[in-house]
Fold:
Amino acid sequence: MAQLHIVNFTEFKSLVGKEIPAGAWLTISQEMINDFAKATQDFQWVHVDLEKIKKHSPFKKAIAHGFMSVSLLSKLLTDLITVDSATMGVNYGLNKVRFPSPVLVDSQIRLHTVISAMDAYGDNGLKITWNCTVEIQGTEKPACVAEFLSLMFE
Structure:
């Protein structure tokens, strides 16, 4: 899916309540999982110890950190949509997060999102509420369901 290009905030506001077309698939590699473990200092064996995983994990494959799914929301949203007039965007927070299904190494994920709200923020900003679902290809339950908040400025 091609990135959705929005000209300005006026056009962007017209998307409230509408589902944005699903994004492209992203493969979750062991290298990504290892890099996330290094960045967060979370070396739990289910993520990085391949020998122990083969012996003891019910999945027999490494699984990505749940918080890795949340961390990828910014990237996945940026891949979906851009607002040409925006000069800066930042993460603002999360209201709800759940991890219904593990992401096995080499799985493909993609983002589905609906913009549920946009509110003025300061003189030239918007606070956007995104209802996000991270789909795992071939799996019934999503990897992550989150109400994600971001700020964007023009």
Q: What stands out?
A: The radius of gyration is 17 Å. The domain at 4-153 is CATH 3.10.129.10 (Thiol Ester Dehydrase; Chain A). The chain has one domain: 4-153.
